[in-house]
Amino acid sequence: MAQPAWQDPVPLALDTAPVPEYGSGSLADLLPTLVAGQEVPGFTAAIPELTPADRNCVFLIDGLGWEQIKAHPDEAPFLHSLLPTSRGGTGRPLTAGFPSTTATSLASVGTGLPPGEHGLPGYTVRDPGTGALMNQLRWKPWTEPKVWQPHPTVFQLADAAGVRTAQVSAPMFEQTPLTKVALSGGSFLGRLSGEERMDVAAQRLAAGDRSLVYTYYSEVDGKGHRFGTDSDAWRGQLMYVDGLARRLAEQLPPRSALYITADHGMIDIPFDERSRIDFDEDWELSAGVTLLGGEGRARHVYAVPGAQDDVLAVWREVLGEQFWVASRDEAVAAGWFGPVIDERVHGRIGDVVAAAHDDVIITASVNEPHESAMAGVHGSLTPVEQLVPLLEVRS
Known about the structure:
This protein is an alpha/beta fold. The chain contains 18 helices and 18 strands.
């Protein structure tokens, strides 16, 4: 029922925000479950639906969420046919974690930890030590990686326990700080073409009695950001990656399990003022704010000291019907970033955290011109962004 015009808007209740399934069905639980089945010390199987395998391969397709696969059976016939196998044959997805963005999700995958522990809780967040915004995907400004994320990766621990471990990805990712803090351990094998990556991943999987191989493809996400998921360019990438997945599945050595997953889904946002709220042009939202972090659908808002309560009140009043708007303490208590928040991570989270509910984003046309021009976006807690597949093929 429509609200009477004279009545004040009612903000979305925070307890209506879907919380990621940390500890039982999130991306952070995948590798710990797989290596627990390979008898790597210190790990337990967090996703109970999965059956152990001696050789495990994870193929992560950037930006290809659960709902995108469901909606495109013609473009992705192989991936669509595997939907019933997801999450150990239950036909259910995993949750990415919050925010549902690449840097956060890859760190969750590689460390086996939720964002509140690995410490990459957004696309950009404030560095409490310097007061500057830190872009955790591009690693700017430079920050010592092992200080920012000190936990060992699952790959490192598995490799130390005798599991043959490898990452197969584009060569340009080998030396990036994000790779070092999230995905390092064992061998890195850079290959330019998707077909080469699939072939090498299968070879490395066969190289050990116990093996763990990770491979990655980025351009589904890239075309989605630029053109949207309702574009021929995006659908072309989906068709291509469907063929890659089939190519890898057909080469699995004996005693292997292939898991096809993603770091987040994606939603297209119209280019109109109603759907794109420009922070840089909005005096109400910018009042009392010293830094705007995160991304369009998952904002970290850092207030001038002493203005935190006022900023929260204004953001909740202006956006509360379209966004879940929480204080840092409320977001932490709700479990958005996981059940535990490391002390070093607490100050990286915004004084105010805003997660989109409706089909809307908060742009920053002056300070974020590239991001503000994206057609497809992600980051929030909604199913289209949050739910990711865990498709399974066994040999």
